[in-house]
Structure to design on (331 residues):
């Protein structure tokens, strides 16, 4: 069903690619990927490279990638190679960043817009996708002075009301990580680290705080995710996978770059949706590109973890409810 141009619910505005549509119809595993990191997280050509590499990692794991973006009033779920390249090479500044609060403005404007974690969840869930990979979620920003910042990403509320598994490398290091965890706890979102007790720190392997939950490996992860989604609470689960060791930044290097960039952003009066892209770009310069390498490696790695998770969940759902653990061990 298609609504008149300029109108329509999320479901009516979905344009699911043929490949993703048939995978979903046949019950094969699909992984949603966001697109704001293509337009606002990386510069060209690193953005196209990371987009292609994460799609490839999903495929390698046996799942179908579904990159989500907006074009001409439609929510695209699954981009072909030409569309991915057109988006990655679109003039910088011409592409809107769409989150839940800016979804209507992005859909009402012509041309490309990209979806943050919150907007990607809205589209992917409507399309019937349950696993989603990104780099880092948005969260509670650091306060410039004493007190707590009210700049809290709409990603957190979306996690609270969308039953999906989001695979990331921890809340972005530019955030107030302890307060981000507090909001997620209040809103009923389980946060689980994979393979370690500490919360992954995005650029660094550890955020320096314990993760609320942890699982030893991907098999145990699939069991926990299936348990959470099976409860029908309505909320998502945040899966945090540490950046691969060979691309990680030392904790002190990451912290220094983040501190400097945050101070500079405050002095320059940067805030709102511009803040995250501004900080990421500044940290890239301050670390001589090491942060871009870490960010690329972690996004690609997360895409692979998400693909394997999607596969195990699909296999588990075809078995008796109690046999998912045994089933994933059987592989
Ligand atoms: N992960 C990355 N790079 C990014 C983002 C995530 O490695 O650029 C994007 C995501 O789309 C996330 C957004 O939803 O940053 C958060 O923006 P904000 O803090 O303005 O809500
Ligand atoms: Mn914000």
């Amino acid at each position: 069903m298609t609504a008149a141009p300029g109108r329509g619910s999320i479901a009516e505005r979905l344009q699911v690619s043929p490949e993703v549509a048939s995978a979903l119809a046949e019950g094969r595993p699909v992984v949603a990927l966001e697109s704001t990191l293509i337009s606002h997280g990386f510069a060209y050509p690193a953005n196209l490279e990371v987009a292609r590499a994460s799609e490839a990692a999903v495929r390698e794991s046996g799942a179908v990638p579904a990159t989500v973006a907006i074009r001409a009033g439609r929510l695209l779920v699954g981009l072909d190679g030409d569309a991915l390249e057109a988006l990655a090479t679109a003039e910088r500044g011409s592409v809107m960043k769409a989150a839940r609060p800016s979804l209507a403005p992005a859909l009402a404007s012509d041309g490309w817009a990209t979806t943050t974690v919150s907007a990607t969840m809205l589209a992917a869930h409507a399309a019937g996708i349950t696993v989603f990979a990104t780099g880092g979620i948005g969260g509670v920003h650091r306060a410039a002075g004493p007190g707590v910042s009210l700049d809290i990403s709409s990603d957190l509320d979306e996690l609270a009301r969308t039953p999906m598994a989001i695979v990331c490398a921890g809340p972005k290091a530019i955030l107030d990580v302890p307060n981000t965890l507090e909001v997620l706890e209040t809103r009923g979102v389980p946060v689980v680290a994979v393979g370690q007790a500490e919360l992954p720190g995005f650029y660094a392997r550890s955020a320096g705080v314990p993760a609320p939950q942890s699982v030893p490996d991907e098999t145990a992860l699939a069991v926990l995710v299936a348990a959470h989604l099976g409860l029908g609470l309505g909320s998502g689960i945040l899966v945090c996978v540490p950046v691969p060791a060979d691309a990680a930044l030392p904790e002190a290097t990451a912290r220094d770059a983040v501190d400097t960039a945050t101070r500079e952003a405050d002095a320059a009066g940067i805030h709102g949706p511009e803040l995250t892209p501004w900080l990421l770009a500044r940290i890239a310069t301050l670390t001589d590109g090491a942060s871009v390498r870490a960010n690329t490696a972690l996004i690609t790695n997360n895409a692979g973890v998400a693909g394997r998770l999607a596969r195990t969940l699909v296999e588990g759902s075809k078995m008796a409810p109690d046999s998912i653990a045994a089933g994933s061990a059987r592989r």
In short: The pocket of manganese (II) ion (ligand 2) is lined by residues 151, 153 (CB under 6 Å).
